[in-house]
């Protein structure tokens, strides 16, 4: 019985997690654009930009990865805490 309850909670949390993930992605993109504007020159480079140097491409990737990882962790944790406050149980 407890296993069914856990499965049901996971299914109910899934749409919430998807929406939080989309919102987190938008926030992370905005934060990365602002961070790159502070440290880089122009738009952030793409790995396939032939005119850009390795160090610039790798720096952009490192900054972007760090920002996305921190935002994802914050969003995931906040969502789980919110679900626990509403339902009394930890999702997943």
UniProtKB/TrEMBL annotation:
The chain crosses the membrane at residues 12-37, 57-75. The keyword Transmembrane applies. It holds the Pfam family DUF4235. Keywords: Membrane, Transmembrane, Transmembrane helix. This is DUF4235 domain-containing protein. It comes from Streptomyces ficellus. The lineage of its organism: Bacteria, Bacillati, Actinomycetota, Actinomycetes, Kitasatosporales.
